[in-house]
Amino acid sequence: MKKIITLLVFLLGLSVSQGQWKSIAHYDRMASSEDPATMPWNITTKATYAGIRSVLVTDDLDGDGKLEIIATDYSNGGRVHVFEYVGDGNLELVWSAPDNLVTPHTESSPRWVQTGDLDGDGDMEIIFPVGPRYELGKLVVFEYKGSDNDYGTAPALIMEADQFVATDGLGIFRSDRERGTVFDFDSDGKDELIFSNEDKNVYIFGVTGNIGGFASWNIEGGDPIINPINGLSAGSHMQSIPVDYDGDGVKEIVNHHWAYYGFWSIEPSGTNQYDYPSAPNPSGVLGPTYYEFYKTRNKDATAFMGLAVADVDGDGKEEIAGLAHSTLDVTLISQPFGAVGVDVWDDSAKCSVIGSRSDYGLSSSSSFWGLYAADLNNNGKDEILVGGFYGENVLSFEYSGAGDILDSTSYNVSTVYTGEPEDQWEWLEVTIRDSAGLFDTSYSKGAWGNPGVMKMSHGDITGSGNYELVLALQQDPPYDSTAYTYQSWDGSAFVEDSVINRLRPRSVNLRIISKDGLTGVYENLDLSLVTPDDYVLEQNYPNPFNPTTTINFSLPLDKQISLTVYDVLGKEVKTLLDNEDLKKGTYQVTWDGTNNFNQKVASGNYIYTLRFGNFSKSAKMTLLK
C-alpha cells in the first residue's frame, strides 16, 4: 500500500481570500509494480502526454453511498479508471475499462469522460471516446451491472465514428476534442449526448431501447433533413453545454466553435424537440444568431480545454466561463434576464475578459490551461477556477458581490493551490562529463516543466462535509524516468560512455486537495491509495506438492473475496473461499488436492485465483503423485 504524504503549502504572491488548500492524496504510477497490461497510466509506446487528461467526480453511480472519481488514461489503447473512497483513509481503484478497445490506437484519447442514464432505466453509464481522430475511433458506453462497482468487461453500446455517414449524411465524429456532454436536454427522463463532428455541425443523440439488451442511437436534433440550418460556423465545433442563460429555469444548449471565439445556441422545446436557428445568420459572424466575440480583435481563439457553467453572482441566471486559447484570457459571457430564444448573440459587450495570464506575471505560456467552476466555499456564488503549472496550479476568480460581473475589478483573485515546489520534481536529463577527473553536471527539464492541471472536478469524496477538489495532471515529457548520460573527454570532444535510465519516484497524475471549509483549520489528512498491486497472492508451498499445499494471501483493507482453483483449461476444480467477507490482514488456506465433490484430482498443473471486486490475481501450482 502506498502511503500518501500530506504537503503543507505556504502560499506566496497573490492574495488569498478563500483559504489555503492542502494536498491530501496523489496517485504515483511509478511506485507500482503491477503488470504493465493492467497498470493505470502505463505508457509503453507513446512518449508524450502521459498522465490524466480528464477527471470527473460522479454522484454515486452504483448506489453504495460513495462518490466515484473517474480518470482518463491514454495507455493500453485508451480507457478510464474508477476510484472510490472506502473509508479509514483509503482511496481504492475499483474498476478499469478493458484495454485495446480500438486497434490500432494512434491518438491521445480519451480526452473526456461523462456519466449518465441514456436509456432512462436507472442504471448509470460511463461514456467516453477512444481511438484515432476520425475513421477508426468510436464512442463506448459501459453500464452498471447491478453489483458493487461493476460496469462490465466490454462496452454495452458503441457508436462508430462513421456510423451516420452513409445513412444520414453526417460527418465523422472526432475523438480528439476535449469535451463531450451528456445531459437530459429535453427533460424526458433520458440523457442525450453531444460531441464533436468533423462537419462542424451540432447533433443531439438519444438512445432507443435498453442498453445491454436491444438499443440503438437515434438523431434527436440536428438531422440534416429537419434542421438544415446547423453549421453556422466555419470553425470546428468544440463543445456544447447546457446553460440557463436567460434565467427562465430551462437550460439552453450553447455551442462553441474554434473561430474567433464563436457561439450560438439551440432551444429545447419538448421531448426530442429542439429549436435550431430558422435562417442563416443575417449579420454574418456578428449576430444575432451566431457571434464571434474575438473577430473585431482579429484574434482566433477557442476555449480549448472546455467551457464551464457558472452562476458567479448567485442570482439564478447562469453565465459561461471560458479560457481563451491562444490569448489566455479568462472570459465570461452573460446574457440578460429575458434573453429568450436563439437570436440573442448580438453584442460584443456580452463577453468580457475578467483576467489574463499577463495580469499576474505568469511566465509559462501554458500557465492558464484547465478551467472549472464550482461553489467550493458554499456561499451561493460559483468561483471560476483556472489550472496551470507550479506557482499557479489553481487560481480562483470570485465575484466580490459588488459591481458589474463583466468588470474584472469586481473579482477577488486568489491562489487556491500552488502545487509542489519545483525542487520536488526530478530532472528529465542529467549529463555528467568527466574531463581528466574534473566533473561537470548539467540538468534539463521537459517542455512543460512540472505537471500542469488539465481538468478539475469536485465533490465531498471523503464524506467529511467539505468539498475536495480533484486535479488531473499531465506533463510533457511524462518524466517516467531520468536519463543519466555519462561522457568523457577523448582529447578532442566529449564522447558518450553510457546512459542509465532511473525511474522517477514522483511521477504524479492524480491529485486531491482539501481544506476545512467550516473552521479554516488545516489538519493533516493522509490517504492511502489502494490498487490491485496492494493485494498480495503468494506462491503456494510446497510446490510441487502432494497431497496438500498452502496458499497465503494478504488484503490491504476489508474486502469480499473468492479463492478458486482451476485446471489449465479454465474449468473450475475447487472453490476454497466463496465471496467471503474478510478483514484487512494476511490469510492462509490449504488445498488438499480434491475437487468440489471431494474427489482426488489428477496430477498436473493448476491455477489458483484470488478475486477481489473487479480484479483478480492468479498463480500456477503443480500436483505430483
Number of strands: 43
How would you sum up the global shape? globular
Classification by helices and strands: mainly beta
Question: How far is the first residue's CA from the last residue's CA?
Answer: 39 Å
Strand content: 35-45%
What is the averaged pLDDT score?
A: 85
Indicate the low-confidence ranges by residue numbers.
1-19, 44-48, 519-525
The number of helical runs is 1
Biggest β-sheet description: 6 strands, mixed
Gyration radius, in Å: 27 Å
Strand order, main sheet: write it out.
Answer: 1-36-7-6-5-4
The residue fraction in helices comes out at under 10%
Secondary structure elements and their pairing?
Layout: E1 2-3, E2 22-28, E3 50-51, E4 55-57, E5 68-73, E6 79-87, E7 90-96, E8 114-116, E9 125-130, E10 138-143, E11 157-160, H1 165-168, E12 181-183, E13 192-194, E14 204-209, E15 215-221, E16 236-243, E17 252-258, E18 262-270, E19 273-275, E20 291-292, E21 308-310, E22 319-324, E23 329-333, E24 351-356, E25 371-374, E26 383-387, E27 394-399, E28 411-417, E29 429-435, E30 438-444, E31 452-459, E32 468-475, E33 481-489, E34 494-503, E35 508-514, E36 528-530, E37 536-537, E38 549-555, E39 559-567, E40 572-582, E41 585-591, E42 604-612, E43 615-623
Parallel strand pairs: 7-36, 29-33
Antiparallel strand pairs: 1-36, 2-35, 3-32, 4-5, 5-6, 6-7, 8-9, 9-10, 10-11, 12-13, 14-15, 16-17, 17-18, 18-19, 18-20, 21-22, 22-23, 23-24, 25-26, 26-27, 27-28, 29-30, 31-32, 32-35, 33-34, 37-38, 38-41, 39-40, 39-42, 42-43
